[in-house]
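Progress against Task 2.4 (sequence-to-structure conversion) is shown through the following example record, which the project officer requested during the mid-term review.
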Amino acid sequence: MRKKLKILIIRLSSIGDIILTTPIIRCLKQQTDADIDFLTKKNYENLLKSNPNITQTFGLSENKKELLNILKSKKYDCVIDLQNNLRSFKIRFAIGVKSYVYSKNNFKRYLLIQFGHDLLNNHVVDRYFKTVKKLQITNDKKGIDYFISDNTSIEFDTNQDYLIWCIGGTHEAKKLSFVQISDVLSHLNSPVILIGGSEDMELSEQIIQSTHSKTVYNFCGKTSIEESAYLLKKSQLVLTNDTGMMHIASAFDSPIISFWGCTKPSLGFYPYLPKKEARNIITSVTKKPCSKHGKHCRHNNQGCIKKINSEKIYDTIKEMLK
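Structure tokens generated for the chain above:
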């Protein structure tokens, strides 16, 4: 009887990048029936807890030595490193088995950011699949997975038609402004839930106060990722900056409108094979990305995403709600 493979996948951060590994996890499981473990940072471990294709998740925290001993004791057949940084190198070196390592295409990314020459021309998920090509794993083209626990619920009537607006972002230069969001909301009649981290609570309160709306709800900092995902799944339409929640939304049947400034879809992190229609609204200021993670903008201290016309956002919402 053939031995069952044991595989460890490493992707330490962040939310969106981890969610984008789910097609790899699914295809590995379905095409090899291997036991698949996943190593990430401790604070991201819950993202994959409900994924039925994963045998065990491990969270990297302070006690690294103990964790390494556990990983070595698992006697993996191979490690798939989708992080490819110094920390992941040390981990796979310590485990000491055959490794398959994701190529970040740094030079191609440099050419795109600095000169606008797009030699990448694909999604990061497709690059992940190149990592496992030698294992004869093929892409089933079924998109992103996000599994929500059966007992997840939230105090909001999700049976009504409502919109979700993900107003957060890793950096200020990746986020729409108070003015843009408020202007659009002042013309909408649909209920809208604002979601984001605790750092977005002040912005969401300002938006609600400016619109004087009783159908705009502030859920920023009040929901877990799983609860936010539950709201995304039930929504009529998702509006979002370039965030991890955008990638979670692509696992569900809600259409998506995403907003792009310092980062661009050309970097390969746009919604991947969304279940419904997805539209990217991109700033007209520049066609090339300003920086790889959107931390810096070449054109505006607050980010060139702030130059997206609110009327264009509103018109796109109306079109997609028809």
